[in-house]
Amino acid sequence: MSWLPLSFGFPAILWGLLALPVIWWLLRLTPPKPQAEVFPPLKILARVLKREETPRQSPWWLTLLRLLMAALVVMALAEPIFNPREKLPTTGSALALVMDNGWAASPDWDRRVATAERLIDDAAAGGVPILLAFTAEKPNADIGPFSPEAARDKLRATQPRPIPTDRPGVYARVAAALDTMPGASVAVLADGLAAQGDDAAFKALLGKDPSSVVWAVPDRLATVGLTDAENQIDGFALTAIRPSSDATPRQVTAGAFDDKGRRIADATVSFGMDETKGTGLMKVPFELRNDFSAISIDGENHAGAVRVLDESSKRRRVGLISQSEADQAQPLLSPLYYIRRALQPFADLVEPQSRDLADAIPQLLEQKPAMIVMADVGNIPEPAHQKLVEWVNNGGMLVRFAGSRLAAAGNDDELLPVRLRTGERSLGGALSWTEPQPVTEFPKTGPFSDLSPPAEVTVTRQVLAEPSADIVDRTWANLADGTPLVTGARREKGTLVLFHTAPQATWSNLPISGSFVEMLRRLVQMSRNQGTLAAGAEGQVASLAPYRMIAANGALVPPPAEARPLTVGHGPVPVTIENPPGLYGSEEGVVAHNLLDADTTLTPLMRPQIAAPVTEMRYAFDESRDLKGPLVAAALILMLLDTLAVFWLGGMFAGRRTRAAARGAGAAAVVLAAGALFFALAPHAHADDSKPGDQAAIDAVSKTRLAYVITGDSSIDAVSRAGLEGLSRFLIDKTALEPGDPAGVDISRDELAFYPIIYWPIDPRAPMPSQEAIGRIDAYMQQGGTVLFDTRDQYANGIGADSASPATERLRDILSNLNVPPLEPVPADHVLTKSFYILPEFPGRFNGSPLWVEASLDASNTEHRPVRTGDGVTPIMITANDFAGAWAIDASGAPMFPTVPADPMQRLLAYRAGVNIVMYMLTGNYKSDQVHVPALLERLGQ
Does 552 fall in a domain? Predict the structure, then answer.
């Protein structure tokens, strides 16, 4: 029985409301207790003469109170539900729940989990097993069948991943499991985006004749992702995409961040009517653009809205120099004409003011170019020559083009990759070809190995290299006759490159081909150290360790345990669980591995057409509310009021006992009779005096447990939990304490008194705690608890930074609302330095930040200093050394993060610091009494 928005679990009990008239009649006919009076009898006679009335019934308001109480009890036993939800069809032989947990599911993941829990609850009510599979997990992940409790645990433990979904593989596994469960129900909770192979995947999954199908996709697809970010001449160009179903004009804001997470630029990306691709431009100076480390779209909390940048996204200055005078009438004959046209889109070009090499080369070097291109430059004056050699040895790239001057000059072993023969080779000359020579396949050991050889390019003139033992290793491009077209070699930290033909179209048509642009682009990338990370100067395959990963919500986080090194050098690498999106490499240089490619499109997922009945549902939280508890509470309040009314009518609250009157005799008996009637109509109801949370409280106090504050950032919370687990294991190994599993607490809701210490990692991106939450923390600290604040920002601002980090600023905001005592760094004689280990300092993952505690009452008196903070324990500790990062261990017990600096002794000292803190919290400052032993013995006469 249901009347929206109210329904009843046991509507038959409502027939008990028919007993209300009977109860009313009994209450009216219940004779009241006669009024009793003591002597004098004349007063009784006087009152009888004045008022001739005999009490026959209870007051009307008391009768109404009792009828309302009985009605509330009847309705409560009928289990009313406000805003009931529709029961979903999950009554087959089993429930196969397939859920997308890729990057597109991240923004509303909690809503999707709540939807899946409703399906599991309905399946549990029907007593059917549950297959639970996620489309962004490892291929060997367990899919069940599970019991409802195990399915809920697996669902709550699963998080979205910053990778594409693999529906074909997962759907095939679920379809194979359904072969043994004919007639099962299938629930598909999709992210709303179509992918390649979806049609065949749905056909395999839904082709098993399911008894019913539940289909859930987002109500509206408004996802926006970044597919490209290019550092152009006039600014940083952004390209974003959105689903084709979002056809209205729209603007989004994108922000650029440096390697410290500071926002340094903004841009607006605009989508026109029916446009799925939008563009924007960040017009900021060249130097500022080179500081960009990541770009993200505001309000899009998923990995597709973030694009990390590496050296390939940074523009570099390229210096151009030539000894030939520019011919304004014939610019196509200029040695630098085609070089300028090829480099201008992706480099900032600078040229010297002087044509004299002695002045021109120092002028270029003063502008700190990443690469210098010399077009037909012969002999270089000695002072400029020496400066150029030093620049190359320090990491510069020198690219030289042949010409008549270079061919006539002598060999320069310091500024040429190979030795040259005197003169030049040309079509029809002394060293001539019978026909122009084409370019063959690029050597696999060179930086052009992945480029296709240009079939249209031919060379009619070149300078030849002297044969040598290493000429093959130094050859980056060959002609058909085997002679080198491009050679290169390393010179300490720098690189020398020589094109054996001229940069004009007179010696070859290479400068007017597209391959010329690609070859120069590759050289510019190498000048930015891209070659040493990705393919090396010689084209070797590189394996780069994970450095900073993009989480599913778009945040940059430390690498997860599943991340593996990225192998580059064989073309594009797909985004997988082993290679999630992010930065790979080290602090010396990184390679960006982004989620969305330039040709990615977002296509809405269409519901498959099948014969089985399909129920469409929306992602939503369960908004139904059980009214049984509130109705029972209201009935209990009315019963209390009834009891007080009976006592009042009986004269309990009167000033004189002689004036007491009892007009409500038998009321309690009527209430008990009504209760017996209601419970007779509801034999399913059982008394239970337990309250929600009782078992959790019992578990919390049965063992000492360390706690950490849940910040809402899954990566930070995971590190906090792993850190406290590592510290708990160390405590078990080294002390008599055996703490339980660490507990994550929500400071705005959970009971804090169960935990002696709470570790709070400060996250500047997390919302500011509410005043109610701050008040709970304040009460916890005043009642004897201690909060360990860890800003984890010892090196956040770098060496010599004056301004506070965002984490420190957030900590100041939090402490401004607390009753914080005066603080001081832990003195050398503090109890913390000797509560278990003798420690001179308290390092974590970082070292250098002091541990702040409550200041002593007389901290300046070093000779007769009182016991530290009386007999109490400091309610607050503050550090920036990242304790949890040093304590954190993975499933195998190995440390998750390296210490800074990488010193094994620092990690051991961090564990010992944690032991001292825990022992200090549990035992107080009893060690301080040792300083008073002489005085105590003197008082005792010993």
Answer: yes
CB atoms within 10 A of CB 646: 20
164-168, 662-666, 801-805, 919-923: which has the minimum mean pLDDT?
A: 662-666
Task: Please indicate, yes or no, whether residues 421 and 326 belong to a single structural domain of this protein.
Answer: yes
Side-chain half-sphere CA neighbours of 328 within 13 A = 0
Q: 145 to each of 129, 177, 423, how far by Cα in Å?
A: 6, 9, 80
Domain co-membership, 639 together with 596: no
Specify the higher pLDDT residue, 673 or 825.
Answer: 825
DSSP letter at 730 equals H
Q: CA–CA separation, 456 vs 98, rounded Å? A: 53
Strands (E), 140-219: 185-189, 212-216
On whether residue 111 sits in a domain, the answer given is yes
Q: Are 584 and 547 in contact (CB under 8 A)?
A: yes
When pLDDT is cut at 50, 70 and 90, the band that residue 696 belongs to is low
Residue holding tokens 């038998």? Answer: 666
Q: Which of 441, 488, 482, 447 is nearest to 462 (CA)?
A: 482
Residues 139 and 253 in one domain: no
From the list 804, 887, 902, the residue with the least C-alpha distance to 842 is: 887
pLDDT score, position 800: 42
Residue-level pLDDT at 668: 40
Per-chain mean pLDDT for the chain: 81
116-125, 555-564, 858-867: the lowest-pLDDT one: 858-867
Q: How far apart are the C-alpha atoms of 603 and 585, rounded to whole Å?
A: 33
Residue 131: its pLDDT value, please?
A: 92
CATH number assigned to the domain comprising residue 832: 3.40.50.12140
CA separation, residue 590 to residues 117, 557, 811 (Å): 41, 15, 32
Domain shared by 718 and 855, yes or no: yes
Other Cβ atoms closer than 10 A to 622: 12
Query: What phi-psi label fits residue 572: left (phi over 0), alpha (psi between -120 and 50 degrees) or beta?
Result: beta
Q: Which two tokens stand for residue 461?
A: 């003139």
Q: Give yes or no for a contact between 558 and 277, defined as CB atoms under 8 angstroms apart.
A: no
DSSP string, 577-595: SSS-SEEEEETTEEEEE-S
Closest residue by Cα to residue 553 from 304, 310, 307, 761: 304
Q: Which pLDDT band holds residue 52 (cuts at 50, 70, 90)?
A: very low
- pLDDT at 678 (0 to 100): 43
Count Cβ atoms within 10 A of the Cβ of residue 824 and give its class: 0-12 exposed, 13-18 middle, 19 or more buried: middle
Token representation of residue 400? 């030289």
pLDDT at 680 over 50: no
User: CA separation (Å) from 311 to 214, 560, 913?
Assistant: 47, 24, 40
The answer to whether residue 89 sits within a structural domain is no
**In this structure, what token pair is assigned to residue 927?**
């060690």
Number of domains in the chain: 5
CA nearest 747: which of 765, 772, 773? 773
Same domain, 855 and 871: yes
3-state secondary structure of 805: coil
In a domain, 689, yes or no: no
**Two tokens, residue 254:** 């994108």
633 with 615, same domain: the answer is no
Q: CA 564 to CA 580: how far, in whole Å? A: 9
Q: Would you say the C-alpha torsion 853, 854, 856, 859 has a positive or negative sign?
A: positive
Of the listed ranges 51-60, 463-472, 886-895, the one predicted with least confidence:
51-60
What is the rounded distance in angstroms from the CA atom of residue 537 to the CA atom of residue 523? 9
Which helix (DSSP H) or strand (DSSP E) does residue 270 occupy?
Answer: strand 263-271
Residues in the chain: 942
Q: How confident is the model at residue 692 (pLDDT cuts 50, 70, 90)?
A: low
pLDDT, tens only, 140-152? 899 889 999 999 9
User: Same structural domain for residues 519 and 445?
Assistant: yes
* Statement: residue 14 has pLDDT above 70: no
Q: Is the pTM of this model over 0.85?
A: no
Question: Where in the sequence is the domain holding 265, given as residue range(s)?
Answer: 222-314+544-603
Residue 679 pLDDT class (50, 70, 90 cuts) = very low
